Amino acid sequence: MTAETDERDSPAANSCARTRSHGPFTVVEVSGEIDMATAGLVLDHLDAATAVAEPDVLVDLRPVEFLDCSGLRVLCRAERRARERGGRLRIVSDGPRIDRLLRVSGLLGRFPPLRALPSRAERPQ
After folding, report:
1. pTM over 0.85
2. Residue 121, domain member (yes or no)
3. Does some domain include residue 114?
4. Of 86, 97, 98, 112, which is most buried, counting CB atoms within 10 Å of its CB?
């Protein structure tokens, strides 16, 4: 988290998302099935993570079992909010399912996945 916010300002962990700091990054770990019924639970965490100036957000999708267009919509909204505030939002994914979904939806260029969380001192390009 940044100096403007900390984990106390984040929404409480829920069945689909939790927020934590990892060095200079805010990590939103997403898990389970992200669809129309659960995307709002993820949105709460992403809205909080992108509410600060110059957010540097990593969305860890490695525990995700299913992601539909509702989840993609939430990611696109959060990435746009981060850019508008002078920051960025990146995803972390090591599985072919998410890569395939991003490629088919035309979002792979917007969300080139990191395969693992960077070290606490590293800033991914």
Report:
1. yes
2. no
3. no
4. 98
